Amino acid sequence: MRDTVQRTDLLRRGRRLEYLTLGWNLVEAVIAIGSGLAARSTALVGFGIDSLIESTSGAVLLWRLFGDEKSDLREERALMLVGLSFLALAAWVGWEAVSTLLSRAGPDESLVGIVLAAVSVVVMPILARAKRTVASGLGSRALEADSRQTDLCAYLSAILLVGLGLNALFGWWWADPAAALVMVPIIAREGMQALRGEECDDCHLDLSEAVPGSPVDD
Predict the structure, then answer these.
(1) The whole model's pTM is what?
(2) Of the residues 22, 39, 59, 72, which has the maximum number of CB atoms within 10 A of its CB?
(3) What is the pLDDT of residues 58-84, one digit of tens each?
(4) Residue 145 is part of which domain span?
């Protein structure tokens, strides 16, 4: 009984963490894309679109963890769309970054982007660590994989912060597109993982199964 209660608590914590990540990514996307367009920053816009796609990926994971077991086909299609979106984003970011470097049309400073990246560098590792703790308790490969995805978000945030910071502090306009280029392989990796379905292999966890024979109230 004690193990069942503990598992139920872990499932609830896992769901709250996923909702928190989803909400953060949506807010992050809106701020990053808006401020990136204003500053003409490829790195910032790319970071924002990446967060938006990750929100979709996170929604698929929530669907898989706490949803209908019969939704496998729709899940595969959704993950394929997410993966292709990541790959398209990687191609766009790479193209825009190279174009910016060749044209030497550097972006403006973005204090909003710097603050956003700095906050994300702090928030994402905390979320990733919390997910790993819950994943270990549940034995969930899905949450473990998602924690690694959150780690990647932290890396992207750090890269973005360096690029925006160098541009703002020293006027190194090329730092922004250079940061964008560094992001490309990370974004592409996210796309390949989604296409292979690595985030959701064997990851269905139905909350109603936490207490046999009875539903679990949130």
Answers:
(1) 0.81
(2) 39
(3) 787 777 666 555 556 666 776 788 788
(4) 2-203
